[in-house]
């Protein structure tokens, strides 16, 4: 786990100097097997911190609508990370058979992306790991949009996590 945190922290450090624009990043993951995914961080101009959104594609892989959402979010003052869960795993399409990469397995992608974004905003690798763990676990607790944690849900989960330590 500490090796993964080190890799993620090193990648996240490169986010710190980003001005407005788009910067490509490598996102290491370990589930369902080790791979290096690619992500593009769309960051608004100016000093942060910024609220952030992680955009995951559907079963047919990355598409133009993900990029369009990222540009719109950036224009609205959000940082947006688009994550390609397929190319680093040599996948092209999962529609009809998601056994090669299940939704539960993609919680690792959510963890890695959330870690990078949270570490960039807060600068504390352990706090980023806690936030990423909460975001990943919340992402698999429901179906569809019901599983997407908002800031209040993430803050509440983090408070429960901190109280349990």
Biggest β-sheet: strands ordered side by side in the sheet: 1-2-4-3
- Unreliably modeled segments: 1-18
Distance between the termini: 18 Å
Helix content: 40-55%
Q: Provide the structure class.
A: alpha+beta
Rg estimate, integer Å: 15 Å
Coarse morphology: globular
Structural domains: how many: 1
Q: What's the order of the H and E elements?
A: HEEEHEHHH
How many DSSP H or I helices?
Answer: 5
What's the overall average pLDDT, rounded?
A: 79
How much strand content do the residues show? Answer: 15-25%
Q: How would you characterize the largest beta sheet?
A: 4 strands, mixed
Beta-strand segment tally = 4
General description of the model:
The protein is of the alpha+beta class and about 160 residues long. It has one domain. Helix content is about 40%, strand content about 20%. It has 5 helices and 4 strands. It has helices spanning about 1-15, 65-75, 105-120, 125-140, 150-165, and strands at about 20-30, 35-45, 50-55, 80-85. Strands 1-2-4-3 form a 4-stranded mixed sheet, sandwiched between helices. A hairpin with a 5-residue loop joins strand 1 and strand 2. It starts with a helix and ends with a helix. The relative contact order is 0.15. Mean pLDDT is about 80; it is low at about 1-20.
In short:
With 165 residues, the protein is an alpha+beta fold. It is 42% helix and 18% strand.
């Amino acid at each position: 786990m500490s090796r993964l945190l080190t890799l993620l922290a090193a990648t996240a450090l490169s986010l710190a100097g980003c001005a407005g624009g788009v910067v490509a990043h490598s996102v290491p993951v370990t589930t369902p097997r080790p791979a290096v995914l690619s992500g593009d961080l769309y960051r608004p101009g100016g000093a942060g911190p910024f609220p952030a959104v992680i955009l995951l594609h559907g079963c047919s892989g990355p598409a133009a609508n993900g990029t369009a959402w990222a540009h719109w979010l950036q224009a609205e003052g959000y940082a947006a990370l688009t994550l390609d869960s397929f190319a680093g795993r040599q996948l092209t399409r999962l529609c009809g058979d998601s056994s090669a990469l299940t939704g539960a397995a993609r919680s690792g992608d959510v963890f890695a992306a959330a870690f990078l974004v949270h570490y960039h905003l807060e600068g504390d690798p352990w706090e980023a790991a806690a936030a990423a763990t909460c975001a990943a676990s919340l992402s698999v607790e429901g179906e569809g949009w019901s599983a997407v944690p908002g800031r209040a849900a993430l803050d509440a989960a983090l408070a429960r996590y901190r109280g349990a330590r």
